[in-house]
Amino acid sequence: MPTGPLPRFPDGFRWGVSTSAYQIEGAADADGRGPSIWDTFAHSPGRIVDGSTGDVACDHYHRHAEDVALLAGLGVSAYRFSIAWPRVVPTGTGAVNPAGLDFYDRLVDDLLAHGVDPVATLFHWDLPQPLEDAGGWLDRDTAHRFAEYADATAARLGDRVKLWITLNEPFIHMSLGHGMGVHAPGKMLLFDAFPVAHHQLLGHGLAVAALRARTASPVAIANNYSPVRVLGDTDADRAAGTAYEALHNRLFTDPLLGRGYPDSAAVDTGVVRAADLDVIAAPLDVLGVNYYNPTGVRAPEDGSPLPFELVPLEGYPRTAFDWPVAPDGLRELLGWLHRTYGADLPPIQVTESGCAYDDAPDAEGRVHDPDRIAYLDGHLRAVRAAIDDGVDVTGYFVWSLLDNWEWAEGFTKRFGLVHVDFDTQLRTPKSSYTWLRDLIRAR
Ligand code: GBH
């Protein structure tokens, strides 16, 4: 549990919360939005644990004013949302849909009017379905389509967006979406999914160039990272740890920071053209770090298709998702990035950090989530400790503002500071919201 007041954070430290388009917006057919791979996937039987879809989600598309008021009441200095590519370019290629951009235009102005910096992610996994039909991220052209979409979006929202984030967690989109089939588009290619890594990174680099031509605001990417804990002390266990680290933590970072692909990351050189690596290594202003938990790794059984085996870590409390609560892992991770990339590492903002619990209103309609308060307290202390260790961390965003549609888990996992009743759309700030509000106010 929390032990005394949190230490001070540097002046200008950015306090934020994060969401993503498909998880909150709903309004799947509104104002010319086209279908995305997540519409297709969620509407395919058996893909989502509770059979739900994001058709309505938190109905944020119609309730954005109420949600901005919640942000303002929380007192955050920034709000990280994602822009739905299929609203902006419904067919994925060609004509821009101005009505789709209107929604984000109003949202951005409303945020600014409330003193909240808009932080926009361009791709949080909702690829326009027509692009998937043309090959999706397995196809090199998708990287160019992404840059066109970035250009059109920045032409409209330009400098009013205070931080641009190209991709969210390209590793998860590759591995769960194209390697294991757990996320859209549901492909199970294992290591043959590598082109999805390269084309996302290429799209990132091309989008950075497009953004630089349109805006003076800083540009980032949001990667997910997990510090690797090797369980076992054989050479094979250590090799498994190295292999997992290369795949999970380095594959989407080494090339961004000018180091090319890591040796052990099963790179399919057939899709990598030499000039691509320069495009991908375009200078970044901020590295977004999404952190949830560390990962236990040991040597695989003989005959395993993977060069490592993932093992649940013992000795930690667990969230409703069964993920270990390990704030020490965040400090360890930030230190690892600092040591590994040294002077090449841009300032870091923790662009997601949060937890799911089975939160429900009590008889008075209040929602108490002491576990989330303890979680946030611990992770903020870990960030503060990492700053003392010498890591340049300039912001922290809680995942998430609202309980929302948690991908393959549907509505069964609640990550919000604000409880949402998905029958009535009633929003109820949880005790963690009040805790975070008071903490930000005191700064
Ligand atoms: C993020 O992904 C997404 O960006 C966001 O949309 C999503 O809602 C949020 O997190 C919550 O899920 O098997 O115990 O080691 C998170 C990616 C991948 C992080 C799985 C935790 C494994 C936990 N996650 N990972 S464990």
Automatic annotation (TrEMBL):
- Top-level taxon: Bacteria
What Gene Ontology terms describe what this protein does at the molecular function level? Answer: beta-glucosidase activity
Annotated active site residues, numbered on this chain, are 169 (proton donor), 352 (nucleophile)
Q: Which residues bind substrate?
A: 23, 124, 168, 292, 399, 406-407
Matching entries from Gene3D superfamilies are given as: Glycosidases
**Enzymatic class:** hydrolase
One GO biological-process annotation of the entry reads: cellulose catabolic process
Q: Name one GO cellular component term.
A: cytosol
Q: Its catalytic activity?
A: Hydrolysis of terminal, non-reducing beta-D-glucosyl residues with release of beta-D-glucose
What EC numbers are recorded for this enzyme?
Answer: 3.2.1.21
Keywords (alphabetical) are: Carbohydrate metabolism, Cellulose degradation, Glycosidase, Hydrolase, Polysaccharide degradation
Q: Which PROSITE patterns match?
A: GLYCOSYL_HYDROL_F1_2
Which family does the UniProt entry place this protein in? Answer: Belongs to the glycosyl hydrolase 1 family.
Report what the protein is called. Answer: Beta-glucosidase
Q: Which organism is it from?
A: Micromonospora endolithica
| Lineage, highest ranks first | Bacteria, Bacillati, Actinomycetota, Actinomycetes, Micromonosporales
